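Narrative summary of target 7.
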Amino acid sequence: MSPPNLPGWDYVPIVEILQREFAVPCRLENDANAGAVAEHRFGAGQGTQHMIFLTMGTGLGAGIIADGKLYHGATDTAGEIGHVPGRLQQGGICGRLGQRRRHGAGCGTAGYGRHRKW
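Modeled conformation, tokenized:
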């Protein structure tokens, strides 16, 4: 694992470190997936079988609950909507040209605010 917004955290065995330190089972998920699981178990999604949890922070993502379980998809990228290419071609300061996260994530919307003439 090499998270793009955590420089220096390349291949840190965080799950193994936490399991060893606290002697409990651990899993690693991105923020959208973890949020979806939390809302499904403890929040507004309790009792539902299908739901989507959206995030707009350093990225743009979605955690998907399908049939009562977290859905990862065939390539473990289900919900990674910020990296889906689109027709968007201008503005924003994060992500590659045309990616939705460049426009919808926190860093993209902050960039719009900084560059807008009020």
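The chain has one domain: 14-115.
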